[in-house]
Specification:
Elements: E1 6-11, H1 16-23, E2 32-36, H2 45-50, E3 56-59, H3 71-81, E4 88-92, E5 108-115, H4 123-131, E6 138-144, H5 150-160, E7 166-171, H6 176-185, E8 189-192, H7 207-212, E9 224-230, H8 238-248, E10 253-259, H9 263-272, E11 277-280, E12 294-295, H10 297-302, E13 307-311, E14 314-318, H11 321-324, E15 339-343, H12 347-358, E16 362-367, H13 370-380, E17 383-386, E18 397-400, E19 424-427, H14 436-443, E20 447-449, H15 452-467, H16 473-487, H17 493-497
Parallel strand pairs: 1-2, 1-8, 2-3, 3-4, 4-5, 5-6, 6-7, 9-10, 9-11, 12-14, 15-16, 15-18, 16-17, 18-19, 19-20
Antiparallel strand pairs: 11-13, 13-14
Helix pairs in contact: 5-6, 8-15, 8-16, 15-16
Length: 505
């Protein structure tokens, strides 16, 4: 029987004291703690070896494989580590020629190879050579995911490897799915830091997210997969929203983030992982249209989709943004006859403009790109003006339908607060819960609302499309709200004092 995959907690601290403190307070799910010794500036190895707690993996990563240790420092330190009482020591592919490092006895050996620059064509051959090295307990292969399809290469690599001997997944934003699915594919272990702790490689997922959001140990080869496609997608709360709903209903499904440079790059993953459903976010809401087999009425009207559902062998496009975009306005503003200014001319702006028009609002769209503004106006029956026109707009509501001001760049604003001449301001952004421009609008006496309710509403509609079940909205909203509140900085001084920069998409 294959052994249970290990959860290895990464401790990448600058000082010995900090590393030991982190080691003494592991996550309850942690099986093994990795000390990244190459990053410790005042390394006191005896203190680390004397510390009592979970089993240790001691790593001295070389510069060639993405670490900080030079060759001379590594060679002497590795020989000392192999005479220590540590449970595991990490050796690298470049160490294979040093036979004394592989003699019997001492700590178990993890033979690793990292390529922080890409995933080579001969990935499988390199892994096979490492697995054939005698005196090795585990082999670790990690490379940078250049394309989303590299996740599939890791799946195939793990499925073909001896069970319980290979640790493998991809680094970088595009490799995140391979980390979540690695154990289900056969990886002997997974590396992850605690939430808020320094990571040792790009794309690492906090242990808390692996355990609570993705429930990684419960993913089986038969688990149905869903996901969100975007660029970037690392800040998306969609995995929290949907996975909370799936857990509440006890469904054997998981929702993952997928980052790609183009829709075409992602299509093999969509097909090969047999995703049942897909959320689509910036910048692919329009770009994905040529790849779909059909659209619902709202998607056709918007000329954009935020939802793709697989119906037998067909990819059907939906748009749940349209109705969800006006959800936060209920009870706040009577839309029939209201004058509304919309900032932006992308897919979100088009959905909002259509929803407002359906309810009898008079809509003016302001865009930096005249062609996009005019195209939106023709498609939706609203007025289009240049960006500067927003400065003098005096109506009932201004809406930011651009991504400007969202995480990871919350210190930006689409327009200066001095341009706002309406009594209300609404941002479709939900992360952060309260944007910089919302706070500035409130400071000058305006009522302001964010896009959290819209986000939950569109996600709930997607959830029903994906699962055929009514969405557990309360559980989904609670999961996102808690995460957003936890990620908010204790002080907003830096954001408030930041210089405004303006953009429109």
């Amino acid at each position: 029987m294959a052994r249970r995959p290990l959860l290895i907690e990464v401790v990448a601290r600058r000082t010995t004291a900090e590393a030991i403190d982190a080691y003494r307070d592991p996550h309850p799910a942690t099986d093994l703690v990795e000390f990244r010794l190459d990053g410790i500036v005042d390394l006191k190895l005896d203190r680390i070896l004397e510390a009592r707690g979970r089993p240790k993996l001691l790593t001295v990563r070389s510069r060639a494989q993405g670490g900080a240790a030079g060759p001379e420092d590594r060679a002497a330190l590795l020989r000392r580590l192999l005479r220590s009482g540590a449970e595991y020591v990490d050796l690298e592919s470049g160490d294979v020629g040093a036979r004394d490092l592989f003699r019997p006895g001492g700590p178990k050996r993890v033979l690793s190879w990292h390529d922080p620059h890409g995933t080579p064509i001969d990935l499988e051959e390199r892994a096979a050579r490492l697995l054939a090295v005698p005196g090795v307990d585990l082999v670790k292969v990690v490379t940078w995911a250049e394309v989303t399809g590299d996740n599939l290469r890791y799946r195939d690599l793990l499925r073909a490897a001896p069970r319980g001997r290979l640790i493998a997944f991809a680094m970088g934003p595009k490799g995140v799915p391979s980390r979540i699915l690695a154990a289900a594919w056969g990886s002997a272990a997974l590396f992850a830091p605690r939430s808020g702790a320094p990571a040792s490689a790009a794309g690492q997922i906090p242990i808390e997210d692996l355990e609570e959001v993705y429930r990684w140990r419960g993913i089986a080869p038969t688990t149905t997969l869903l996901g969100v496609l975007g660029a970037p997608v690392g800040g998306s709360m969609s995995p929290r929203l949907h996975n909370a709903g799936l857990e509440a209903l006890g469904l054997d499904m998981r929702y993952l983030p997928f980052e790609a440079s183009s829709v075409a790059e992602f299509l093999p993953v969509l097909s090969d992982l047999r995703l049942r459903g897909l959320s689509v976010t910036h910048p692919f809401k329009e770009a994905i249209l040529p790849h779909l087999d059909g659209l619902d009425a709202d998607a056709r009207a918007c000329g954009a989709v935020n939802t793709v559902v697989k119906v037998w062998n067909r990819l059907e496009g939906r748009n749940t943004d349209l109705e969800a975009s006006v959800a936060p306005l209920r009870g706040w503003l009577r839309l029939r006859g209201a004058r509304v200014g919309v900032l932006g001319a992308g897919g979100a702006a088009r959905a909002l403009a259509l929803a407002l028009r359906r309810r009898g609002a008079r809509v003016t769209v302001f865009s930096r790109t005249p062609e996009r503004g005019r195209a939106l106006a023709r498609a939706t029956g609203v007025l289009a003006r240049g960006w500067a026109g927003a400065r003098g707009f005096r109506g009932d509501l201004v809406v930011n339908a651009t991504p400007v001001g969202m995480t990871p760049r919350p210190a930006r604003t689409p327009i200066p607060a001095t341009w706002l001449k309406t009594p209300r301001y609404y941002a479709l952004i939900y992360n952060p819960i309260e944007t910089l421009l919302m706070r500035r609008a409130q400071a000058i006496g305006l009522e302001a609302r964010g896009g959290l309710e819209m986000f939950v509403a569109q996600g709930a509609a997607q959830f029903s499309e994906f699962t055929g079940r009514e969405a557990p909205i309360a559980a989904m909203r609670r999961a996102v709200t808690r995460a957003l509140e936890a990620s908010a900085p204790p002080s907003r001084r830096a954001a408030t004092g930041a210089k405004e920069r303006h953009a429109d998409r």
